[in-house]
Amino acid sequence: MTRQSFPPLTEDQADFASGGGAPSHGARTPRTGALVWMVLWIAFGVFLLSAAGAAFVAHRWVTTSMEGRPVDLMVINGTVSLYSARLQQWVSVVADARLREGDRIRTDPNSQAFVTLFDHSTVRVFPGSELEVVTSASGRFSPAQWRIDLQLNQGTAHLGVAPAFEWERAFTIRLGQARALLEEGGYTLTAEGGKSGLRVGDVGGASVIASGAEFHVRSGQRMDFDKRGATGPIAEREELIRNGDFGHGIEGWQPGSTAGFREGQDLPGSLSLSVEDGRVQARFHRAGSRGTFYETYLFQEVGRDVGHYAELVLSLDFRLVNQSLSGGGYLGTEYPLLVRVNYRTALGDGTALYGFYYQNDANNWTDQAIGVEQNAWIHYSAPVNLMALNPRPQRILSIQAGASGWDYESVVTNISLAAQ
Fold it and tell me: Is the pLDDT of residue 300 over 70?
C-alpha cells in the first residue's frame, strides 16, 4: 500500500482542524479596535466642545445683549435742533422731545437744553453746543446692566452723573480722541476749535484714555486735550481772560474811548504799554482836561458759559498815579481805574463794576469803589464771588478795564477772572 502524502496545513486550516471553526477573514485585530475607540472619543470630544461653545455663545448673548433706553430732552430757552438718526434729518424742537441712540442735539448762541438720562443723570447743554447720544441701553436679560455713552462735539455741557446704587453701570463721555469713564459726580465738558477739556467738580472722578495712556482725574482737577496730546491732571482754577498780563501786547483786547460833552472831545485820553519791574502794564493817561469827561479803556469779548462753576473771582494788579476828579464823580461811575464785568443771567444782562480811587475831596459817591494809596502797587482780589450774585450769572459776555473822569493816570496788569 502506497502512503499518500499531503501538503502541510495552512494557519487557517490548522485552526479549523483544531476546532476553531471556519476561518474569519474580517475579524478585528487589537490595533483595529483601538482605532475605532479613538474615533469615538474624538467625536465625543468634538460634541462636548460644540455644546460648550454653544452654551458660551448663548450665555454671552444673554449677558451682553442690550436694549436701547430713551433719553428725555427739555428746551430751557430758544429753539434747539435735533438730528434724528432714524429719519436722517435735522428738525427744530421748541418744547420737549425724546432722544434715542445715535441722535444729536444742537443749541444756537441763544438757546439751552436740559437732558435727562434713564439712570436719572442729567446734562445741561449750553449755547453753541452739540451733544450726541452714542449709547443709552440696559441689559435685555440683565436689566441691572447699564451702558451710557455720550459725545460732546462742540461747545460746553455740564454733566451730573447720578448714583448707580446696586446697578452695574458704565458711563462714558467722548471728547475728540479722549474717552473718560465717569463716576458719580459733577463734570464740566468743553470742546472748541480742536481743543477739549474735562473738569471734575467737588464730587466725582474719571478714568481717561487719551494719547495711548490712562489718567485718573479726581475732584477739583481738570484735563485738556488737543492734537498735540493730553495735559493734566491739573488742580487749579480756569482762567477766562486771555492775555491778562499783556505779555502779547494787547492781543485779545480792543482799545476804545468815549468822549463826554463837545468841549472835551479835543482832549482825548491815551493808551500805551510799558514795562515796569519786569512786568508789562497798560497805561491810561489824560491831562489838561479843563474839567471835561473822557474815558479810555481796553475791552475783551469773553463769551464763556459759567453757570456750572461754583466760584468766579476777579483780580488784578494796579497803581493810581494821578486823579483830578474826586471819588467817582457826580454819578459815582468815573474813576482813574474802572473795571466792568458784563454778564448774562436767566432774567437778563447785568454788570459788576469795580472802581478804584485815592482821593475824594469833594465827597462824591463811591458806592461801587474802594479807596487805595496813591502811587503804590495794589494787588486786588474781589471779596465777592460773582457766582453768589442774585440772579446768578450764566454767561460772561465781556470785560472792560480803563480810566475815566477828568485828568487821570493809572497802570494795570495781571487782569484775571478765575473760575472753579
Answer: yes
pLDDT over 90 at 227, yes or no: no
Q: What pTM did the predictor assign?
A: 0.62
Q: How many CA atoms lie within 13 A of 225 on its CB side?
A: 21
Give the sign of the dihedral formed by CA 79, CA 83, CA 84, CA 87.
positive
Nearest 5°: phi and psi at 315? -145, 155
Of 411, 174, 180, nearest in space to 296 by CA: 411
Q: How many Å apart are CA 241 and CA 282, to the nearest integer?
A: 15
pLDDT digits 0-9 by tens, 326-383: 999 988 899 999 999 999 998 999 999 999 999 999 999 998 899 999 999 999 999 9
Distance of CA 39 to the CA centre of its chain: 62
Q: Which residues pair with 52 in a beta bridge?
A: none
Are 285 and 404 within 8 A, CB to CB?
no
Tell me 308's DSSP state.
Answer: T
Cis peptide before 30 (omega within 30 of 0): no
Strand pairing partners for 165? none
**CA nearest to 289, candidates 372, 369, 409:** 409
**Same-fold call for 66-236 versus 254-419:** yes
What are the beta bridge partners of residue 314?
A: 417
- Cis amide leading into 336 (omega within 30): no
Record: fold of 254-419: Jelly Rolls (2.60.120)
Cell of 390: 442774585
Residues 6+ apart with CB under 8 A from 292: 260, 261, 263, 264, 267, 406
What CATH code is assigned to 66-236? 2.60.120.1440
Q: In whole angstroms, give the CA distance from residue 328 to residue 158.
A: 40
Q: Are strands 66-68 and 71-77 parallel, antiparallel or unpaired?
A: unpaired
Q: Quick check: 256 and 297 in contact, CB under 8 A? A: yes
Q: Going by C-beta distance under 8 Å and a sequence separation of 6 or more, which residues neighbour residue 409?
A: 283, 284, 285, 286, 287, 320, 321, 322, 336, 403
With CA atoms as reference, report the closest residue to 305 among 155, 94, 177: 155
37 pLDDT more than 70: yes
Write out the three cell numbers for 282: 497798560
What are the structural domain ranges in the chain?
66-236, 254-419
